[in-house]
Amino acid sequence: MTTKDFFPLKNWVVVGDVLNESKFAAKIRGKLTENGYQVTGVHPKGGEGIVTKLAEVAYRIDVIDLCISPVTGLDYLKEAAGLGIDKVLIQPGAGSKEILDFCLEKGIHAVEGCALVMLSGAG
What we know:
The radius of gyration is 13 Å and the shape is globular. The protein is 36% helix and 21% strand. The longest helix is centred in the middle third of the chain and has 14 residues, at 70-83. It has helices spanning 3-6, 24-34, 70-83, 97-106, 115-119; strands spanning 11-16, 38-42, 50-51, 63-67, 87-90, 109-112. The protein has 123 residues and is an alpha/beta fold. The mean pLDDT is 95. Strands 3-2-1-4-5-6 form a 6-stranded parallel β-sheet, with helices on both faces.
């Protein structure tokens, strides 16, 4: 799979600091929403309209956009594996060898790429 394969799928979550408008997670969440995607923000601290766990999302998740530290991201991918979520877009800085190895072991399609580039039509 490539980054382009994820964008026909419409049910996303963005894992990261989605409430801080200066952070990429918030920008990605906003751009996905603007482009007609169903998207929920996920962050360990929660917040208004933000869930803390993938299991709290009210719809079947097609793609996780990982925009958080690799250590915390691995925890979310462990939850994803248990929920049967098998696609993750790993933003620059959110990946690690451990994450890629885990995804390979669990059959999760992991692609490193930038959602904002794809959504701008430059990808």
